[in-house]
Write a structure and sequence with these properties.
There is one protein chain. With 464 residues, the chain is α/β, with parallel strands linked by helices. The protein folds into three domains: 2-142 and 268-339, 3-Layer(bba) Sandwich (FAD/NAD(P)-binding domain), CATH 3.50.50; 157-265, FAD/NAD(P)-binding domain (3-Layer(bba) Sandwich), CATH 3.50.50.60; 350-455, Enolase-like, domain 1, CATH 3.30.390. Helix content is 30%, strand content 25%. The chain has twelve helices and 22 strands. The chain is globular. The termini are far apart.
Length: 464
């Protein structure tokens, strides 16, 4: 078989790149391990099933507030197996729709392990098929990491790939890791009735530079209000199995008993076993493939996208990089990788969204910054919805007014952030945002108000 492009991995990045390559007229083949893994980590073991479960937790939140709207509920029961059935049905439906659509547009998916034999040859182990190609795109995703003596076994210690096999609500769960996945499952399990202990090695939850400390602190307060026991600067020193689950000794000197430990400490790139190093594709010490601004590796006709390129492991980043790669294969140089315009969104007791620079990052880059903040507390739409918690925070260049970053905590932050993504990409300033019309009542009004706080001067709550 001879084609223009072989994509190794039919996850979010690979699949999106395949469709884009089809649109651009390239003869393309996708290589994926099995029919059950089409869609990759996001669809099968990540963002899609977790958002389904998070929505259930959110509905419980809303149910508990119904009396405020004159609706007096009679109570409810939790059927976790029903939740699992509904969640899995969504995943299967999306996966099958992916495969059907690929078949309709004549985008073949060959099942097996794609191994690069030379820069123009991919051999598919399992299908025993050799493909000659002009270009190769590596989109092989990532897998969970273990830490210390916490080795996942799917029962006592469960990683973020194994959690989907759990078919009961734990009475008590110990979550190790206060990043995006940890705080998401802390909220889910707590609202479904579990006692939750969340431990984080760093001094705060969401301990990444791209998310302001204020955002993590705000979310932490809410999780604690809901009953999540958050312990920062804490680790698991040892643990053992018990007749009812596990017992863990923590570095703060306490012991915690739980049904199981959920290990949510991150993921590592899946880059070994594909023949990449043998053909000269360079990687860093952590196994990430080195790519340039066009998603191109050190072998000119081999590209990479998604989790294999950097620790910023997001499905939309993979899609974005995959299309940039295809565009460059076809001679385009107008579309480049830019982490600054990639939104980072966390779904927990609040949605937490960030794009661009934080205030600290901007100052590290020698910007003189101004910050505009508007609270949802007095936002009429948020009050109507009973979700008037959180804020919109815009970071701008004091000299030009250019919007450098935006950070939103609160209702529908993951949707609201996209308005500012486009402003940052087009280098719009706070004057533009402050003079844009927003419908009333709407949550979006808070964006214009935050921009006005910078452009015209602050009149609401005090910053800095």
């Amino acid at each position: 078989m001879e084609v223009d492009l072989v994509i190794i991995g039919a996850g979010s990045g690979g699949y999106e790149a395949g469709i884009y390559a089809y649109r651009r007229g390239m003869r393309t083949v996708l290589v994926e391990l099995s029919p059950e893994s089409v869609g990759g980590n996001c669809l099968n073991r990540g963002c899609i099933p977790s958002k389904y479960m998070r929505h259930g937790a959110y509905l419980i939140d809303k149910f508990e507030k119904m009396p405020e709207w004159g609706i007096l509920p009679k109570g409810f029961d939790i059927d976790y197996k029903k939740l699992k059935e509904g969640r899995d049905n969504v995943v299967i439906t999306i996966r099958e729709n992916f495969k059907k659509f690929a078949q309709q547009i004549n985008l073949p998916i060959i099942y097996g392990r794609g191994v690069v034999k030379d820069p123009n040859t991919v051999f598919v182990e399992g299908a025993e098929e050799t493909i000659k190609t002009k270009f190769i795109l590596v989109a092989t995703g990532s897998r969970p990491v273990a830490v210390g003596n916490l080795v996942p076994d799917g029962k006592s210690v469960v990683d973020t790939d194994q959690i989907w096999d759990i078919d009961f609500v734990p009475k008590k769960v110990l979550i190790v890791g206060g990043g995006a996945v940890g705080v998401e499952f802390a909220y889910i399990f707590r609202k479904y009735g579990s006692k939750v202990v969340l431990v984080e090695l760093q001094r705060r939850i969401l301990p990444v530079d791209d998310i302001p400390e204020d955002s993590g602190r705000y979310l932490g307060r809410k999780l604690k209000q809901l009953g999540v026991d958050i312990r920062t600067k804490t680790t698991v020193e040892s643990w053992e199995k018990t007749p009812d689950g596990v017992k863990a000794k923590l570095s703060d000197g306490t012991e915690v008993e739980a049904d199981f430990i959920l290990l949510a400490v991150g993921r590592k790139p899946t880059t070994q076993g594909f023949g990449l190093e043998e053909v000269g594709v360079e990687m860093d010490q952590k196994g990430f493939i080195k790519v340039n601004e066009f998603s191109q590796t050190t072998v000119p006709n081999i590209y990479a996208c998604g989790d294999v390129t950097s620790p910023l492991m997001l499905a939309h980043k993979a899609m974005y990089e995959g299309k940039i790669a295809v565009n460059h294969m076809l001679g385009g140089t107008d579309w480049k990788r830019d982490d600054r315009v990639i939104p980072k969104i966390i779904y927990s007791a609040f949605e937490v969204a960030s794009v661009g620079l934080t205030e600290d990052q901007a100052e590290d880059e020698d910007y003189e910054v101004l910050v505009g903040v508007t609270s949802f507390v007095t936002n009429p739409k948020a009050m109507d919805d009973g979700e008037n918690e959180g804020f919109v925070r815009i970071v701008a260049d004091e000299e030009t007014g250019e919007i450098l970053g935006c950070h939103i905590v609160g209702p529908h932050a993951g949707e609201l952030i996209h308005q500012v993504v486009h402003m940052i990409r087009d280098r719009k300033n706070v004057e533009f945002a402050s003079k844009t019309m927003y419908s009333h009542p709407s949550l979006s009004e808070a964006i214009g108000q935050s921009a006005s706080e910078i452009h015209y001067g602050p009149i609401t709550w005090v910053k800095r």
